[in-house]
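Weekly modeling sync, notes
Attendees: S.R. (lead), two postdocs, one rotation student

Agenda item 3: backlog of single-chain predictions. S.R. asked that every request posted to the team notebook include the full sequence so nobody has to chase files. The rotation student volunteered to paste the first one in as an example of the format we agreed on. Action items at the bottom.

Example entry:
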Amino acid sequence: MKVILNTGTSVIQAFYEKKGSTLKDEYRQAAAVAFMDINDMKKLSLNPRDKIKIKSDWGEVVVFVDKSHDAPHEGMIFLPKGPWANIVISPETYCCNVPTYKGVTAEISKTDEDVLLVSELMNKVYGKYNLKAEQLSDRPVYKKMGE
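Predicted structure, as returned to the notebook:
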């Protein structure tokens, strides 16, 4: 299904960012979620928390899906700004140092692929972090001095 992808900050996503848990599953559950019009979800036989693959001219990423609380807006999805959105948005800044976060054309499809944690996503897309050693999501967010 062809859609227009819009991104922005969600309140729950911002909460987990401020909490410092961006490497944990709770952040993935809040930020790796595409919000769709319920009618579009029905067209793809999607239920809340199913997974979709979003493909654009710049990449592809797997995220959870949930019904939008701002519907109706058939043909559009909302994805919180962050690591998952950055894979599929245009890096073009048009001289203003801000990528194109709105109006990105994309194609979505239902999938059984996993929604990756931030560390796994960064490893897959950019080759960052040695995941064979220790999962970054298992590390404590803050350490006291002397630990």
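Discussion: group reviewed the output briefly. The first strand starts at residue 2 and ends at 8.
Action items: rotation student to repeat for the remaining queue; S.R. to check formatting next week.
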